[in-house]
Design goal:
425 residues, 3 domains, de novo design (two linked rop proteins), four-stranded parallel β-sheet, Rossmann fold, binds flavin mononucleotide, Ubiquitin-like (UB roll), binds iron/sulfur cluster, 17 helices, single chain, five-stranded mixed β-sheet
Length: 425
């Protein structure tokens, strides 16, 4: 079942502008252009929409940070989508691109921007080329360009393709990359709201966040808030992957009956092996790995619902691991990923991910003992709170969570080491 974002995906050719228009497309923008920009920001704030890029920051509040007297402002659409297990933005961009373009235009009008940049991950070459055609179609229909629909407001939309680096999904690294520099996160403050792209006021929003906006403008805040919870209104696309029979994107309202049990067992059809689920990554590689307890399985999902497990939903890339998975192996894989993707600016992240990776190599080679596991935990904890961007924090999560929730896997790995050393003696 799809509610807002994926609801039209089975309409043939919905990505073409004529079909999109026949299905109520660009009504949200038309309504927006009849309002004052400040009223749109109020509306999006009242809707309670929260950013779907991972942090869940309130979208209307973010737009409200743009100084009213900013001479130049930009909207940047974050289509970098590189989090392992996340594949929703691509489906939105390829399946219903005008929904995203329309959302970005509404955001631009709300902050009085004249340029929108859509930053696509490096591997989205084909997606980006297609997107350019859809931008042209929107231009041809008067939704982009000079004097949009006779409003006197001008806006252009540019599609940019990155070079394929996970860190360029981090908003300030993305801005650097867009400016033609190395994709390295900036130290904040100042924040992008005042010093963003080319030093100008900038709003950066995730693709899925913006795809919600036309619906909010068209149907109104009350209709939007009918779905979800007071703290997390609306719907979320959950990217389900790993050991499930039916992987894919599932759009569900926050809270209520939306639980991991529903997602994994009902919609996902359980594990292909028939083995029980052992662990779940509710937020891709950058979150904790949760144990598959009844409490975890039956917690209604919204922002903050996995706080008790030091986790959140991030961009809701739910990766399922069955009983066949060794969690030390899983933590090692993620550590290697972060070591590879660290931009290297901060010592704790650059050195920490490197040394964690080396320590996990020791474990995999059967050379580690309990002291090495303590060192792994200690290195990870020392990285916390000492980095420029959140990648340094993300790298810690799978390590600390697996040591906490799956100690028996570490004991087994270390026990195996004991045996290896005894045999060598
Ligand atoms: C290492 C790292 C990678 C990120 N990757 C993405 C990404 O691929 N897409 C995205 O929308 N946000 C990503 N983010 C979050 C962005 O920095 C930013 O919070 C988001 O684009 C804001 O949009 P939102 O408010 O609509 O969520 C990443 C953050 C970090 C620290
Ligand atoms: S935390 Fe890591 S990825 Fe982020 S700026 Fe520092 S070194 Fe780069």
């Amino acid at each position: 079942m799809a509610y807002i974002l994926l609801r039209d995906l089975d309409v043939p050719d919905i990505k073409e502008i004529d079909v999109y228009l026949q299905h109520g497309g660009y009504e949200g923008l038309k309504k927006a252009l009849k309002k004052k920009p400040a009223n749109i920001i109020d509306m999006v704030t009242a809707s309670g929409l929260r950013g779907r890029g991972g942090a869940g920051f309130p979208t209307g509040v973010k737009w409200g940070f743009i100084p009213k007297d900013a001479e130049t402002a930009y909207v940047v659409v974050n289509a970098d989508e590189s989090e392992p297990g996340t594949f929703k933005d691509r489906q939105l961009l390829e399946g219903n691109p005008h929904q995203v373009i329309e959302g970005a235009l509404i955001a631009a009008y709300a902050i009085r921007a004249n340029h929108v940049y859509i930053y696509c991950r490096g591997e989205f070459q084909d997606t980006a080329r297609e997107l350019e055609k859809h931008v042209d179609a929107a231009w041809g229909n008067g939704f982009i360009g000079p004097d949009i629909l006779g409003s006197g407001w001008n806006c252009q939309v540019h599609v940019h393709v990155g070079a394929g680096a996970y860190i360029c999904g981090e908003e300030t690294a993305l801005l650097e990359s867009l400016e033609g520099k190395r994709g390295e996160p900036r130290i904040r403050p100042p924040f992008p709201a005042t010093h963003g792209l080319y030093g100008r006021a900038t709003v950066i929003n995730n693709v899925e966040t913006l795809a919600n906006v036309p619906y909010i403008l068209d149907k109104g805040v009350d209709v939007y808030r009918r779905l979800g919870t007071p703290d997390s209104p609306g719907v979320k696309i959950f990217c389900l992957s790993g050991h499930v029979n039916n992987p894919g994107n599932y759009e569900l309202p926050f809270g209520g009956e939306t639980t991991l049990r529903k997602l994994i067992n009902e919609l996902g059809g359980g594990t292909p092996s028939g083995l029980p689920v052992k662990g779940i990554l509710p937020a891709g590689a950058s979150g904790a790995i949760l144990p598959a307890t009844d409490e975890v399985f039956d917690t209604p999902i919204e922002y903050g619902s996995f706080k008790a497990w030091n986790s959140d939903i991030g961009s809701a890339s739910v990766i399922v691991l069955d009983e066949s998975v060794d969690m030390v192996w899983a933590a090692r894989k993620m550590t290697e990923f972060f070591a590879h993707e660290s931009c290297g600016q901060c010592t704790p992240c650059r050195e920490g991910t490197y040394w964690l990776s080396r320590l996990y190599d020791r474990v995999a080679q059967g050379l580690a003992d309990a002291g090495d596991v303590e060192t792994i935990n200690s290195v990870a904890l020392q990285m916390k709170g000492k980095c420029i961007c959140a990648l340094g924090e993300f790298a810690v999560n799978p390590v600390v969570a697996t040591i906490e929730h799956f100690p028996e896997d570490y004991e087994r790995a270390v026990g195996a080491a004991g045996k290896t050393e005894a045999a060598a003696d």
